[in-house]
Amino acid sequence: MVDLQALAEALIRGDRNTVVKLTERALSEGLAPAEVLNRGLIAGMDIVGRRFKANEIYVPEVLIAARAMKGAMEVLEPRLKAAGVQPVATVVLGTVKGDLHDIGKNLVSMMLTGGGLKVVDVGIDVAPEKFVDACKIHKAQLCAMSALLTTTMPQMAAVVQAVKDAGMSVRTMIGGAPVTQTYADEIGAAGYAPDAASAVDLAKSLL
């Protein structure tokens, strides 16, 4: 039988080929897709997140692990759907209007996916109404936004307000280099995460 611990360890190393092979083998041996996801992939990404937070590993290692996770999810997703396994929640994620940065956003997207959430990435330079529309279409529970410029931070306030005006029970979370908890409190966002790993903890705490 496939050892799910070995799957988690291959993921932590970012060994995409081994991760995909072990995922395929675990499924062919009859392991439940949800078990492969939770005890193998999410367990591995949890450790990646903890190490990233502790500065034991850096962005390149996280990206490599996330790429391995993505490969495994391509195998796993159809099986999870067929088994009726639902993601923990749906998050609409984007960089706010006027801001074209996406590395941080992409990292957050991978970490949230690794945490068992469904991510709807609406891209960069996203207007408030586009965030709101995506939340409605995908029945999202969370709306996460990033800004890397102080000049685009006011757009976060506009998104938070637009979500409130739409009367949705969607929780908003923000992040990015110039952003702080104080700013999140000022604009009425439900939460702030200083980095991609913390974003997963925050998302789960807001659900």
List the keywords.
five-stranded parallel sheet; Rossmann fold; Methyltransferase, Methionine Synthase (B12-binding Domains), Chain A, domain 1; 2 domains; alpha/beta; 5 strands
Task: Write structural notes for this entry.
- By secondary structure, this protein is of the alpha/beta class.
- The chain folds into 2 domains: 4-82, Methionine synthase domain (Methyltransferase, Methionine Synthase (B12-binding Domains), Chain A, domain 1), CATH 1.10.1240; 90-206, Rossmann fold (3-Layer(aba) Sandwich), CATH 3.40.50.280.
- The chain has helices at 4-13, 16-28, 33-53, 59-82, 103-114, 128-137, 153-165, 181-187, 196-206; strands at residues 90-96, 118-126, 142-146, 171-175, 191-192.
- α8 links the parallel β4 (171-175) and β5.
- α5 packs across α9 (196-206) and α6 (128-137) packs across α7.
- The model has no long low-confidence stretch (mean pLDDT 95).
Separation of the first and last Cα atoms? 35 Å
CATH architecture of the largest domain: 3-Layer(aba) Sandwich
The description of the largest β-sheet is:
5 strands, parallel
Regions with pLDDT < 50 over 5+ consecutive residues?
A: none
Query: Helix/strand-derived class?
Result: alpha/beta
Cα-based radius of gyration, to the nearest Å:
17 Å
**SSE ordering:** HHHHEHEHEHEHEH
Strand adjacency order, main sheet:
2-1-3-4-5
Total domains, how many?
A: 2
Give the amount of beta strand, in percent: 5-15%
CATH topology annotation of the largest domain: Rossmann fold
Shape: globular
* Count of extended strands: 5
**Count of discrete alpha- or pi-helical segments spanning 4 or more residues:** 9
CATH class of the largest domain: Alpha Beta
Question: What share of residues is helical?
Answer: 55-70%
- Please, what is the CATH homologous superfamily of the largest domain? Cobalamin-binding domain
Mean pLDDT: 95
